[in-house]
Amino acid sequence: MYDKNKEIGCLHSGRCVRFRKTRVRFDGNVCAFGLKRAGVRAGWRGRFKTEWIMGKIPLLGRTLDELKEIVLELGMPKFSAGQIASWMYEKKVASVDEMTNLSLKNREKLNESYEIGCSAPVHEVRSVDGTVKYLFRTPEGNYIESVYIPDGDRATLCVSSQVGCKMNCKFCMTGKQGFADDLTASQILNQIYSLPERGTLTNIVFMGMGEPLDNLDEVLRALEVLTADYGWKWSPRRITVSSVGLRKGLERFLRSSECHLAVSLHSPFSEQRKELVPAEKAYSTAEILDVLRQYDFSKQRRLSFEYIMFKGLNDGMIYAKELVKLLRGIDCRINLIRYHSIPGVKLEGSDEETILAFRNYLTGHGLFSTVRASRGEDIFAACGMLSTAEKQSGKRLS
Ligand code: SF4
User: Which of 169, 181, 310, 387 to mutate to test the pocket of ligand 1 (most atoms within 8 A of CB)?
Assistant: First the structure.
């Protein structure tokens, strides 16, 4: 018998999109914690009850083990989990009805509480250089952006892992927006699943909104589906996860995944990095490098450091020399990134000559470095420019 005063396992195993496995207190039939996280004010939560519980659970983003749990719960044969995975991850169907090797009865059972959970972008903006910025809306009414970057025979998608970000990096519009919510694996993967150009993708980078290691459970689940044999069978060498370097998450990510890693460094000096990347106060560069030194990056897994170049701030030769010293003995590369000005921040990007001299010094001293081409600046899609702050402030749950 349901008792609303008790902490119980999620009543919404057939309903709640986010907290199936979390032990939370419920308010009536609704996951009150879920509504709170979705930004609904306490006095208003009752109004959203019906809408919330009407939602079906997305299958997209479920690992094979999780799909097995679902089918067994519904009294379907265990092997149907593999069939569902194949329909979603290989054939990329848009509805349960298309899973024609499941019996009609089983499709009906599945349809009662579950759906694929894909939803097309609600808006897109195209850059003169071919880059496309997509806006997605989550079932909770949040907004996130993803950026599609075609480049010759490569096409990269920059995906988001959170709505906003807690890290508050000085040069980043997502950081200025603040944090609203974590994305589920389903919402992370939907950015790829529902991308009009998904068939052309060659690379995926977790460099959109959010700090992936701050939402590691969901990011790892998405990475598993992307790389597993039952999933999308992507090579981990085509996927890069970028992070400011949260120690525990970093260790777990390096143990649990073979995808490439990009660490946002931006300064070799701890005091200066604290200004640019406040996460340095909690996890120093020295600590991050200690973790990285324990892993072998000499083979196929790539470690890179991101370095945004700010005029007169971190682009002098003293910084290049310190970088060479700091990263000595670590198999890595440096990506030099042009800074793209954002409103309200008094920082300027380095000029071309300085960037090239910096790169030449690093490469000449054994630290392979590249200058990342700037893409999508005219549509606010370049590095550090993603933000849905405006959309979020006017968001509705309906
Ligand atoms: S740069 Fe990345 S980690 Fe820093 S605030 Fe922006 S999204 Fe967050």
Answer: 169
Domain termination residue (choose one: 67, 93, 115): 115
Q: Looking at the structure, do residues 29 and 169 belong to the same domain, yes or no? A: no
Confirm or reject: Cβ of 306 under 6 Å from ligand 1: no
pTM: 0.86
pLDDT in tens, 260-297: 999 999 999 999 999 999 999 999 999 999 999 999 89
Bridge partners (DSSP) listed for residue 259: none
The residue written with tokens 């052309």 in the block is 200
Q: Measured from the CB, is residue 132 less than 6 Å from ligand 1?
A: no
**Which residues constitute the domain of residue 271?**
123-393
Element (H, E) at 226: helix 216-227
> Does 398 map to a domain?
no
In this structure, the answer to whether residues 160 and 197 fall within a common structural domain is yes
From the CB of 172, is ligand 1 less than 6 Å away? Answer: yes
Active site residue 10: no
CA distance 128 to 231: 34
CA 362 vs CA 229, 298, 332, 352: distances in Å: 39, 19, 12, 16
Catalytic annotation present for 165: no
**326 and 221 share a domain?**
yes
**DSSP-based three-state secondary structure for 244:** coil
Assess if residue 1 is contained within a domain. Answer: no
385 C-alpha vs ligand 1 centroid, how far in Å?
10
- 58-84: pLDDT as tens digits: 999 999 999 999 999 999 999 999 999
Catalytic residue from among 31, 169, 172, 383: 383
